[in-house]
Protein 1
Amino acid sequence: MAHLGRDFFARDTLAVARELLGQRLVRIWEGERLSGCVVEVEAYIGEEDQACHARCGRTKRNATMYGPPGHAYVYFVYGMHHCLNVVTGRKGFPAAVLIRALEPLEGIEVMRARRGGRADVELTSGPARLCQALGIDRRFDGVDLCVPDASLFVEKSGALPDVAVTTGPRVGVRGDEAALAAPWRFYVQDNGYVSR
DNA sequence: GGATCGATCGGCT
DNA sequence: GCCGATCGATCCG
């Protein structure tokens, strides 16, 4: 299956978020494929979105969100965790989709080792967990996912029907009423790897 | 230069 | 369910 290209990410952020569900996130780690099916995402859209890192404008930390689509935006938080986003929309407008959970598919032994032997259901069922399992840290911030030799990319898989997808408010965010209410979390219904 | 705090996780009650 | 870990970016002075 082919890598998803720039055109996929250079679209409306909510459409990208919805359609990322069911696709395969692949990390090439020391020549081995580590991968999982995307089962949970959240959209963060623009400076008006009070839950978005770009709510106070452009800074050194969030600069990648303002760059071209199809790049990874990886940030460090709580002194120990990394989270992976994919930049969406047009260059210059800050928007991204946070990858919150995967269902592991390939390289599970490596993931178990990286996650300290935790239960399989805890390998990638959270934004920081999946970064640890796949070996993703801030060195990936700004990396292009749409080049042929990328060590991190999204592989096209089958589309999920709407009946398999649930939406709801985003997890763990602060902000105004609109930000707290926006149903910009998308996840695969009844999938055991969805966080929480 | 110093204080604050976060798109989380895991351990403990 | 609650709380501490842990650190760099950001903001204020």
Protein 2
Amino acid sequence: MKKEFQKFQGYLSGHGLKMTKTRELVFKEIFSSPAVHPNAYDVHRRLRAKRKDVSLATIYRTLNLLVKTGLVSEIDLGEDHSHYEPERNKIAHGHLICLSCGKVQEFRNEEIQGVIDRIGEEKGYTLDKFSIEVFGFCQKCKKG
Amino acid sequence: MKKEFQKFQGYLSGHGLKMTKTRELVFKEIFSSPAVHPNAYDVHRRLRAKRKDVSLATIYRTLNLLVKTGLVSEIDLGEDHSHYEPERNKIAHGHLICLSCGKVQEFRNEEIQGVIDRIGEEKGYTLDKFSIEVFGFCQKCKKG
DNA sequence: TTTAATGCAAACATTTTGCACCCTG
DNA sequence: CAGGGTGCAAAATGTTTGCATTAAA
């Protein structure tokens, strides 16, 4: 996470932008627990719980900035808003989403990365990123 | 497509709902060209071009209904609205999206289906469906 | 001290909903 | 002809933006 934060600082200074207390807070909210993948409102709520009042507008602005730097990725978990998580490029991972309780679990798989690389090659694409969302029912919900 | 339409009719009558001219039009708009994956507004525009005026509200209502029946799936192509396509369950397919021109191309791969089934088993999930979106730059855009 | 960052409220885009009227079964 | 379907306009959601003020470099 230290390396990513330095990369963020580098991006900002390289673009005439400034590092602020607020940007640091949002950055840390995303990077301190990668498996949380909060949405913008979650970040807002989590910060407020820590007595850090940051407006939703600024949270959106900062998240968009982090996405632009390539440090954060925006994911769609089947709801009507985006979620965010640190970009762990090179490590293929997807999300397993329970259609009943909404729980989101990550999975990792190297085979898929290989298959997708091959598909890109076949179709003549230079690949940038991919997302896999798998929907089903978790063990707990199957029983209930 | 005939089979799917019958399934739609069966769902409606089984739920005390009615088949209408409008529902048939929306259904056909989705099923007549599976690779179009239009959004709600596209469906509206395409119908209007055929002198069939159906309100956006009804299009949304019908698309949601078709998704509920399992006949249509809602996909996220990285824009800020949903797209729709016939559900071709059992046939794993993903979307290859060009980050420059926005072109969407489908791909099919059996290997991925196998890998995902295995992941579901490992984690104790009963899988329902999955979506794969791969982003990159198409051949044409790489040159330009 | 210059220029970017922030908060607020208004604007936007997409999708949903309440209600009066229309149509299917 | 009873109950669901539709269009319209208004509401609801999630996200972005203009502007006056604050703060980083």
